[in-house]
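In the design runs reported in the main text, the only information available to the sequence generator was the tokenized backbone. The following block is the verbatim input for one such run; it is reproduced so that readers can re-run the procedure and compare outputs position by position.
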């Protein structure tokens, strides 16, 4: 996966290994990796955390 220099400077995007680790350590996250021709070109995670008291803040997309 390739990041723009702006993304790298702002530290907004995890590297693929960091994303795998983060998703593996978060019991509420379900990670998805986007591949093209056997290469990871992106990733996301769907999160549902029912321990958060406010129902409208329990779901988010990484």
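Verbatim output:
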């Amino acid at each position: 996966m390739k990041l723009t220099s702006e993304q790298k400077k702002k530290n907004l995007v995890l590297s693929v290994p960091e994303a795998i680790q983060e998703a593996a350590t978060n019991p509420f996250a379900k990670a998805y990796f986007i591949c093209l021709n056997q290469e990871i070109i992106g990733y996301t995670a769907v999160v549902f955390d029912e321990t958060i008291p406010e129902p409208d803040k329990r779901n988010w997309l990484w």
